[in-house]
Amino acid sequence: MVITAKGKEILEIAEEPEYVMLAKVEDLKMDMLRIVEEEEIKKIRLKTSDEATFEVEPSILKEMKRVQSLINTEAIDTSVAIPLPNITSRNLSRIIDFCWEHQYNTENLEEFKGRFLKSLNHQELKELLLAANYLNIKTLFDFLCNSFTDLIQNESPEFIRDFFNILNDTNSVKSMHAPAFQGSIDDD
Amino acid sequence: MEKLTLPVELVREILLRLPVKSVLRFKCVCKTWHSLISEPHFGISHYHLTAAPSYRLLLEFNESYFESVDTEPHLGQDSSAGNLLLFPSHPFGYESVATKMILGSCRGLVSCCYHRGWDHIDLILWNPSTGVYKRLPIFEYLYGFGYDASTDDYLLVLIPRLFAHQEPKVHVFSFKTYSWNLYDNNVLYSDFFCLRRGLLLNGALHWLVICEDEMRFVIIAFDLTQRTLSEIPLSLNHFSRRSRFLFSFSKMGECLSVCCTYPDPAITDIWVMKEYKVRSSWTKLLVIPLIYNSLYFYPICITKDGGVVGGFGLCKLERLVKFNDKGELVDNVAYNGNQRWDCGNLQYRESLLSPINVIGDQH
């Protein structure tokens, strides 16, 4: 089965991602036209950890610096799908979505980013950050880092420990009451 | 599902994008975070990555404390907007007899001094955000604090009073080489009735002085990279024809600013030089009514929405006020300043940069 959405194709996907269901028929028509126009451009296939294969157009691929460098330096056979063992199909489709919107949606990008962020829970946000870092996609990486800061900047150290799954190894009583603004006075 | 743990490199990337206040609060999350945040390179990266720096106003509170105020919310209403900071203590316990003076700030570091008599000054480099400070040996005299980006060096600039028997020179102390250097002073001026700090803008320090032979005001600028002194013309009759006099040289946002005060009706005009070194770009920013029977208004800093925070008083700051961009009074707080109005307060940028690392390795 071949599903087409927003200029990318997903082949042999086990589970249909939600956004495909939501894509409007109108959008699909538009995208079909675009695909016909871009047919000659060479696409690269990526294979996720759950064995789904994605066909990605060069303009999106350009954002994935790691895949780019794999193609350029390692002379990988592009007729075979490039394996991405760290990334699930769910996350790759999100990433492609983001890159696509970042490139083509100039009018409602902020609105898209808001919706994109809302659809993610904390765990998914972390997974996506790891994926963006792995694929070396600067726009997505910066966006996610900034989203993290918005989430945590007004929170307490206890919340942060819970959020990042960190064990409190400080001398808790002492450090909790240390005035944040005095810091360490280093004066030699 | 088990919670994902992010590797420390990614945590660092997130922390680098947080505001200074949050980063400092998260120092006690765990030992790894504490050492990550305390590391000097973290502060430098954080400084360069900050897209929208935050600024606070430093105000003398009493003999031992300074108050750090966020000028964006209403003044005096939100108690969380102000923080009391303990001023770095004097090495010999001179707090009560020595005059404290803030000399200037750049990149989040504030340079201040204890001033005992005219030739005895103890200098302190202080980061009010982190509380870390570095005390320096005694200097004879000093005047401005800045940063030369071309050599990554903090500089102290001193222009001594011009005496007939002395060759006019500008003294520059480099923190990196820990030494003084002399540069030619080709601009004649003599307005040195008191210690006055320079304003840092566009890589140069600026002072408003009187050119004695012609009895006119002039702004002098010392370029911290070129190490040259130059004049910035001030078309005085352009804005101060019936002024009581021209005073209160300050920095409003990224513009140099002067004030003119008029009697009857008692107002202070705030003028800004919109384009640096362009004489014709002097523009009237705001007209401030002199309320509370004040003789002068001293602007201190500009707020994001175009308003101005400043003080009323005769020669000491007696009332801290905020005006909006239409010149209407928004906030006012009674304030009991002890120092000369231009020495007891200063706007600084929040940063994590450490004063410890500005001194060259061998010192």
From TrEMBL, chain A:
Q: In which pathway does it act?
A: Protein modification; protein ubiquitination
- Keywords for the protein's UniProt record, in alphabetical order: Ubl conjugation pathway
Instruction: Give one Pfam family.
Output: Skp1
In what residue span(s) does the SKP1 component POZ domain sit? 42-103
What biological processes does GO assign it? jasmonic acid mediated signaling pathway
**InterPro entries referenced in this protein's UniProt entry, alphabetically:** SKP1 (IPR016897), SKP1-like (IPR001232), SKP1-like_dim_sf (IPR036296), SKP1/BTB/POZ_sf (IPR011333), Skp1_comp_dimer (IPR016072), Skp1_comp_POZ (IPR016073)
Report the domain of life of the source organism.
Answer: Eukaryota
The UniProt entry, under SMART domains, shows: Skp1
Asked whether the keyword tRNA processing is assigned, the reply is no
Keyword Transport carried by entry: no
* Parts forming coiled coils: none
Every SKP1 component dimerisation domain range: 138-169
The UniProt similarity line reads: Belongs to the SKP1 family.
> Any idea what this protein is called?
SKP1-like protein
From TrEMBL, chain B:
| Database matches in InterPro entries | F-box-assoc_dom_typ1, F-box-assoc_interact_dom, F-box-like_dom_sf, F-box_dom, SCF_F-box_component
Q: F-box domain: which residues?
A: 1-50
Name this polypeptide is given: F-box domain-containing protein
**Which classification does the entry list for the species?**
Eukaryota, Viridiplantae, Streptophyta, Embryophyta, Tracheophyta
